[in-house]
């Protein structure tokens, strides 16, 4: 009887963690999250790998920093700042409803993902992750991506996969993921330094 109970408990546990939608919902309930990331853009001859740090404060505030490349993307919830340190240039964009549906901003958008995307579970994979597939309900909302998938290890963010309209593939792997933490509000504020060119985009 005890053996049967243990088997049932294990089976139930596996079923829960194999459900990507459940993992996604649990992840999005955390207001603040930080992580290290490694982004790979797959090329015909050579792959490009970049690493950095991600910080999220829902809804819609995030800091995405590429350490080696000197690139920084910051959202204060109303504006997005794309800073290129080597060029000493920053582009400012309004965080409007369309930009807010971009797959790149999904992680910071909160629990309204299902309003704009059809979210479905992907069959259990060999990598031990629970995956969800996201398809924009409106073609105009896909922001150039044909495929967006998010993978979780239990309820912890692990990977994202993208395929754009030109069939370019990229993958982001997350490590040292911490949720339910405190992140300084100043991390989501960007103030251009003296000498930096500011470009205001429509």
Helix content: 10-25%
CATH architecture tag: Clam
CATH topology: outer membrane lipoprotein receptor (LolB), chain A
Instruction: Going across the biggest sheet, name each strand in turn.
Output: 7-8-9-10-11-1-2-3-4-5-6-12
For the largest beta-sheet, the strand count, sense and barrel status come to: 12 strands, mixed
Number of strands: 12
Shape: globular
Instruction: Give the percentage of residues in beta strands.
Output: 35-45%
How confident overall, as mean pLDDT? 83
Ordered list of secondary-structure elements with their pairings:
Blueprint: H1 2-17, H2 20-28, E1 32-42, E2 48-57, E3 61-66, E4 71-76, E5 79-84, E6 89-94, H3 113-116, E7 117-121, E8 130-136, E9 145-153, E10 156-164, E11 169-179, E12 197-200
Parallel strand pairs: 6-12
Antiparallel strand pairs: 1-2, 1-11, 2-3, 3-4, 4-5, 5-6, 7-8, 8-9, 9-10, 10-11
Summarize the structure.
The protein is mainly beta and 202 residues long. It has helices spanning 2-17, 20-28, 113-116; strands at 32-42, 48-57, 61-66, 71-76, 79-84, 89-94, 117-121, 130-136, 145-153, 156-164, 169-179, 197-200. It has a single domain (2-71, 94-182), classed as outer membrane lipoprotein receptor (LolB), chain A (Clam), CATH 2.50.20.
């Amino acid at each position: 009887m005890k053996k049967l109970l243990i088997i049932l408990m294990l089976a139930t546990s596996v079923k829960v963690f194999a459900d990507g939608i459940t993992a996604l919902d649990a992840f999005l309930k955390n207001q603040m999250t930080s992580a290290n990331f490694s982004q790979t853009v797959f090329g015909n001859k050579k792959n490009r790998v970049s690493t950095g740090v991600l910080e999220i404060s829902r809804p819609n505030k995030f800091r995405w920093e590429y350490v080696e490349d000197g690139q920084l993307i910051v959202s204060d919830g109303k504006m997005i700042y794309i800073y290129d340190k080597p060029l000493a240039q920053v582009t400012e964009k309004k965080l409007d409803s369309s930009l807010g549906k971009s797959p790149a901003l999904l992680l910071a958008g909160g629990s309204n993902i299902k309003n704009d995307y059809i979210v479905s579970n992907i069959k259990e994979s060999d990598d031990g992750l629970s995956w969800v597939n996201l398809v924009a309900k409106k073609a105009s909302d896909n922001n150039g991506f044909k495929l967006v998938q998010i993978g979780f290890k239990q309820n912890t963010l692990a990977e994202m996969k993208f395929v754009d309209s030109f069939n370019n593939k990229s993958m982001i792997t997350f490590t040292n993921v911490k949720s339910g933490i405190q992140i300084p509000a100043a991390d989501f504020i960007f103030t251009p330094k003296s000498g930096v060119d500011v470009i205001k985009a429509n």
